[in-house]
């Protein structure tokens, strides 16, 4: 609880020093909730942005234990390290670009798309652009998931928020139109196990709409949110007396056997 109480202040101080005038984050308002106080410290007072932040912080807090940041906190915590060390380890994992930069990569992708075809595009133009993008050896960021095989519910709730509060935002319209055509294109391509959008396909667009355009800060927001899940899971792990994690490993001989089996299987196909 001590760490959760301090994180918004730390994160807001970083934001104000990097992107604002470096002024104090002010005093905590006991009449406001965790998210509202965080927004106030960041310097945002739009009620809709506060509502968005509540949504964002909840849906990014935990997503089963297999992703890098959540699993790292479980792993370090299983050694009975304290919550500060466990969460710090999780943030080291989140700092990796394959984990923590996903929604930023979506915005870069959308910016390039708009630069190529503008906002007044047809569905055919959009489909052709996505196809050409894939044929160049690139991926569509924000689509696919290691576990899910349907549209990410976290994407859906962000979409519902946008439909209600910013239906005419140009980038949201682009995200919506991509949602219409991209899954079919990915299925037609035949490589994607899950052609549906994930949480990162939407979150950056919402933050941009409300004026938080500093993309390099998005990972910090993710980290504040992830603390809710990681730290509560740490309490559960201690309460259930879960053992020290020790993943299985393979010897060189074992790896060679796996490689030979895979080669044989490919030959038979």
From TrEMBL:
GO terms for cellular component: mitochondrial matrix. It is found in: Mitochondrion matrix. Pfam families: Citrate_synt. It comes from the Eukaryota. Pathway: Carbohydrate metabolism; tricarboxylic acid cycle; isocitrate from oxaloacetate: step 1/2. One of its GO terms (biological process) is carbohydrate metabolic process. InterPro entries: Citrate_synth-like_lrg_a-sub, Citrate_synthase, Citrate_synthase_AS, Citrate_synthase_sf. GO terms for molecular function: acyltransferase activity, acyl groups converted into alkyl on transfer. Keywords: Transferase, Tricarboxylic acid cycle. PROSITE patterns: CITRATE_SYNTHASE (PS00480). The keyword ATP-binding does not apply. Belongs to the citrate synthase family. Homodimer. This is Citrate synthase. It comes from Panagrolaimus davidi.
């Amino acid at each position: 609880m001590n760490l959760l109480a301090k994180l918004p202040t730390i994160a807001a101080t970083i934001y104000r020093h990097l992107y604002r005038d470096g002024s104090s984050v002010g005093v905590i308002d006991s009449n406001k909730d965790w998210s509202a106080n965080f927004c106030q410290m960041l310097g945002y007072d739009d009620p809709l942005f506060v509502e968005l932040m509540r949504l964002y912080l909840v849906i990014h807090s935990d997503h089963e234990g297999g992703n890098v940041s959540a699993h790292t906190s479980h792993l370090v915590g299983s050694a009975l390290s304290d919550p500060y060390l466990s969460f710090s380890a999780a943030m080291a994992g989140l700092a990796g670009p394959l984990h923590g930069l996903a929604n930023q990569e979506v915005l870069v992708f959308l910016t390039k798309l708009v630069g190529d075809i503008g906002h007044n595009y047809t569905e055919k133009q959009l489909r052709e652009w996505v196809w050409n993008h894939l044929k160049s050896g690139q991926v569509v960021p924000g689509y696919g998931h290691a576990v899910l095989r349907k549209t990410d519910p976290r994407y859906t709730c962000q979409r519902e928020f946008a439909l209600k509060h910013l239906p005419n935002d140009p980038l949201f319209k682009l995200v919506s139109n991509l949602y219409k055509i991209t899954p079919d294109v990915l299925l037609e391509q035949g490589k994607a196990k899950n052609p549906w959008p994930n949480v990162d396909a939407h979150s950056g667009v919402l933050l941009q709409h409300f004026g938080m355009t500093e993309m390099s800060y998005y990972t910090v927001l993710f980290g504040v949110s992830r603390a809710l899940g990681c730290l509560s899971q740490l309490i559960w792990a201690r309460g259930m007396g879960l053992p020290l994690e020790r993943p299985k490993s393979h010897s060189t001989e074992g790896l060679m056997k796996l490689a030979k089996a895979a080669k044989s299987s490919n030959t038979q196909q």
